[in-house]
């Protein structure tokens, strides 16, 4: 049963539906009857001050939901209205509320911009970025950010100029648009330094490090990540510190510097745990397990991955769920449990099928990774024919994959 404070609004909405003042096009979604909407617009035009106050309050609700639902934490949003804490109990509640709004969130940003609420348009687009990216809704993130960026000059919050560019870069990295993202992060870095916005400077440096890493420029990545980590530490920005440490660790790992990589992952885990958001922690745990697998520490890798899987499942991060499950399968193969490993790899393939090749740039890479690991598990179980089928499937996916955007 819902608590009283949740039942009252629901009962009120249901009574409005009964009197045909409000329509319910689908369960849990409400809209004004057309005639009521026309009347409401006339009232708003006649009382512009009251309408503006109501509009700002409604936009504030979307802003609080988006900031509460994201992984970036309070340090990620140092400007703008502070969360009241009364509207949403926690990130789950806020995320469920945004999920119920569905595909209309970009329209909220456009509405704010069209009605002269430039600050709210920018704040909401920024706050929705992590929520959209985590769900693989990259196009919506990019569209909302581009709308907001077009009104950033009208915003009173100067932080928005670098912040929105950092968000565009962050979205672009997940789309594997590395050259575009690098250019946007570079702009954000210059603006953040000019405007004395150290938080955005830390995010821009971390973004540049991520692109460097993706393009194989390990030394440049380490330098950018180290500078971003120093700033993030000083600001108590745990999410940025965790991502900087993670990127630095991966760069060391790719260069074969295992001890340095372990030290970076350890610090990244400390910051992710301090941030308290399951999505960020799950991603760091999953990546930190890679170095343990490389070093042959299969028990340690298994422990990290068993922590990671429920965390990324909790936030609906399908990509990292599949990634973590297949690595857990590899750990189990090396522990002498190939049948358990095979089951885990098939779970990973099931998760992979929930992704779309149209919206997830890592779709084909992930399938090849899972099937390669599954093939080795079949070999360990003495099932050579099934292993061969998996390795052939990897070659088929490789040949059929689309060209990578730059």
TrEMBL record:
InterPro entries assigned to the protein according to its UniProt record, in alphabetical order: TPR-like_helical_dom_sf, TPR_rpt
Pfam family, one: TPR_12
Taxonomy, superkingdom: Bacteria
Recorded coiled-coil stretches: none
UniProt name for this protein: Tetratricopeptide repeat protein
């Amino acid at each position: 049963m819902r608590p009283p404070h949740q039942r009252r609004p629901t009962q009120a909405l249901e009574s409005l539906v009964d009197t045909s003042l409000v329509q319910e096009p689908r369960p849990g979604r409400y809209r004004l009857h057309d005639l009521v909407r026309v009347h409401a617009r006339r009232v708003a035009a006649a009382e512009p001050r009251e309408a503006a106050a109501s509009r700002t309050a409604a936009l504030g609700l979307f802003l609080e939901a988006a900031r509460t639902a994201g992984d970036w934490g309070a340090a990620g949003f140092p400007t703008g209205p502070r969360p009241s804490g009364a509207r949403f109990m926690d990130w789950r509640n806020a995320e469920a509320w945004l999920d119920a709004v569905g595909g209309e969130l970009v329209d909220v940003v456009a509405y704010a911009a069209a009605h002269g609420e430039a600050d709210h348009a920018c704040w909401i687009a920024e706050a929705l970025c992590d929520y959209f990216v985590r769900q693989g809704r990259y196009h919506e993130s990019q569209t909302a950010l581009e709308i907001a960026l077009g009104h950033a000059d009208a915003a009173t919050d100067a932080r928005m100029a670098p912040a929105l560019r950092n968000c565009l870069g962050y979205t672009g990295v997940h789309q594997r648009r590395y050259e575009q993202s690098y250019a946007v992060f570079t702009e954000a870095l210059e603006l953040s330094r000019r405007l004395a916005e150290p938080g955005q400077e830390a995010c821009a440096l971390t973004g540049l490090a991520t692109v460097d890493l993706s393009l194989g420029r390990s030394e440049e990545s380490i330098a950018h990540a180290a500078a971003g980590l120093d700033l993030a530490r000083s600001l108590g920005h745990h999410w940025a510190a965790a991502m900087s440490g993670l990127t630095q660790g991966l760069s060391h790992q790719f260069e074969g510097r295992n001890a340095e990589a372990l030290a970076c992952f350890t610090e990244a885990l400390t910051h992710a745990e301090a941030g308290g958001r399951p999505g960020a922690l799950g991603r760091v745990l999953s990546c930190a397990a890679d170095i343990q697998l490389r070093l042959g520490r299969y028990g340690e890798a298994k422990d990290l991955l068993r922590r990671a899987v429920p965390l990324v499942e909790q936030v609906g991060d399908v990509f990292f769920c599949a990634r973590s499950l297949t690595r857990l399968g590899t750990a189990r193969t090396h522990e002498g449990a190939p049948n358990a490993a095979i089951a885990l790899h098939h779970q990973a393939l099931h998760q992979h099928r929930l992704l779309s090749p149209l919206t997830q740039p890592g779709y084909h890479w992930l399938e090849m990774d899972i099937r390669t690991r599954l093939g080795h598990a079949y070999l360990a179980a003495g099932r050579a024919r099934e292993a061969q089928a998996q390795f052939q499937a990897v070659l088929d996916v490789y040949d059929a994959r689309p060209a990578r955007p730059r």
